[in-house]
Design a protein that fits this description.
The protein contains 19 helices and 9 strands. The protein is of the alpha/beta class. Strands 1, 2, 3, 4, 5 and 6 form a 6-stranded parallel sheet that branches. Helix 5 packs parallel to helix 19 and helix 10 packs parallel to helix 11. The structure holds zinc ion (ZN). Zinc ion (ZN) binds next to helix 1.
Length: 466
């Protein structure tokens, strides 16, 4: 998500290149990586497709590769539609990007539905809205149990695949959902939530967001995570909930990577080297994700966001250029309603914004592939995957990509660039499965340690002061 946070809020922010204060290890790593890219850094041995393997010249067609893969998408905002529009997974797509038919056509194996609570309108009831969204996903899964399977483990994803069903999972987008309570975090885990994005576009008191890091009216942590924020990351590691660093500020990113015991994911993030959005990831960050986790970790994964405003600099610049006109039109709409003594409905404001956005030409699919390719080269082909942001970006997607039914086009484009069948399967879902499995293993280890827990100060759940 979403139209507000991912697109509308970011264009005004300057890039954050100078804001990052990476830990020394990462700075050192970065300089080594520049000097001797593929030799010293096994995990970031960003193999290009052409040097990767001769066996890639196998005769498998893109279609066959797509069919033989467990395809996993880690970010779709469809739950908003379930709740607000009474949308059913069997319904036609309408204005949206996701339904069961399109998932089946694209051979999608697993979808992580995003539990995103818009902080503005839900102030004071984050947990309530979180639970309503979780319930909506579970209701949908129950209603369509002939076609989907609600699962919470990597094994569950594989089981659903064998039974030719779509695996349905959940991730929370924005740490404000836990309302400063590890008890709530644990309960969300028990309801099936398997990743949490530490922040959305809003900082939450214990972790900072790239969406407001330059806004001095908003309180931020000193080091990227407060003491409580470190407890949250530890507790996620201990539970086996994937730590998602999409949306966070650069400093929060590096602080999290220093303390996490498990590899991290970026559920829906693109590359800043190709498109200068504050919430895209620098090459150093890409390498750091590849090296995240403990010493024996196989590293994390960056799931590429499809949003046009994150993959195309040209699109982004065009957005900035029309921004004043958009704001003027929105204000005019608000004024019109105000003169009638009413508030302008959010749906109408969104529709208006979308009308403007639709005037900007959609970027070609090749630009999305450029991001996948860039991350594969910088971080390694074991560290990249797909995080579409379907239903979260007002349809502002590359040309030809409108729903999961179009995912095979990505496989075809990757193979055209020389990616082997094996590499494609990793990108399509294998990498995410590997990380998910490792997160489970780390959790088992931490639970077995049985050491005094930093969470012992719970259950009082006092909001932590900075
Ligand atoms: Zn998002």
């Amino acid at each position: 998500m979403g139209p507000a946070g991912d697109s509308d809020r970011s264009p005004g922010n300057p890039p954050l290149y100078t804001d990052a204060k990476p830990m020394r290890t990462f700075a050192l790593f970065a300089s080594i990586a520049i000097a001797v890219p593929a030799v010293l850094c096994a995990q970031s041995s960003a193999k290009t497709a052409s040097e990767n393997s001769p066996k890639m010249t196998t005769k498998l067609t893109p279609e066959q590769v797509q069919r033989s893969a467990i395809v996993i998408d880690t970010h779709a905002d469809t739950p908003q539609r379930f709740v607000d529009e009474n949308f059913d997974l069997n319904d036609p797509l309408g204005d949206g990007n996701f339904n069961l038919e399109s998932a089946r056509k694209g051979n999608l194996g697993a979808e992580f539905f995003s539990i995103w609570v818009d902080p503005g309108p839900n102030k004071g009831q984050f947990a309530r809205r979180t639970l309503v969204l979780i319930d909506a996903v579970r209701q949908q899964a129950a209603r369509h149990s002939d076609k989907v399977m609600f699962v919470t483990t990597p094994g569950g994803i594989e089981l659903a695949h064998r039974e030719h069903k779509l695996a349905v999972l959940m991730g929370i987008e924005g740490g404000h959902s836990i309302e400063d309570s590890l008890a709530l975090l644990r309960q969300y885990y028990s309801l099936g939530v398997r990743y949490m994005t530490l922040t959305w576009a809003n900082s939450n008191g214990w972790a900072d967001s790239s969406g407001d890091i330059n806004d001095i009216s908003i309180p931020h942590t000193k080091e990227g995570l407060s003491e409580f924020g470190k407890d949250v990351v530890y507790e996620m590691n201990r539970l086996g909930m994937m730590v998602d660093i999409s949306h966070v500020s650069d400093r929060t990113f590096f602080r999290t990577l220093v303390i996490t015991r498990a590899p991290v994911i970026a559920s829906h993030s693109a590359a800043r080297a190709l498109c200068d959005a504050p919430r895209n990831m620098t090459d150093d960050m890409l390498r750091a994700v590849a090296n995240s986790g403990g010493p024996n970790s196989k590293g994390g994964v960056v799931q590429v966001n499809f949003y046009s405003g994150f993959i195309s600099q040209q699109y982004r610049d065009a957005q900035k250029a029309i921004q004043p006109a958009v704001e003027k039109a929105v204000q005019a709409l608000r004024d019109k309603y105000k003169s009638e003594g009413k508030d302008a409905p959010q749906a109408e404001i969104d529709k208006l914004r979308r009308q403007f956005a639709d005037r900007i030409p959609r970027p070609p699919l090749s630009m999305l592939i450029d991001h996948i390719d860039h991350i594969a080269k910088v971080a390694g082909v074991d560290h990249v995957g797909l995080g579409s942001d379907f239903d979260g970006v007002s349809g502002q997607l590359p040309r030809g990509i409108d729903s999961p039914a179009d995912l095979p086009k990505i496989t075809a484009a990757l193979m055209e660039r020389g990616y082997s069948a094996e590499d494609c399967r990793k990108i399509l879902g294998g990498n995410l499965l590997r990380v998910f499995r490792e997160v489970e293993q780390v959790a088992k280890g931490l639970q077995a340690e049985n050491r005094p827990r930093i969470t012992d100060k719970q259950p009082f759940d006092k909001p932590q002061k900075q």
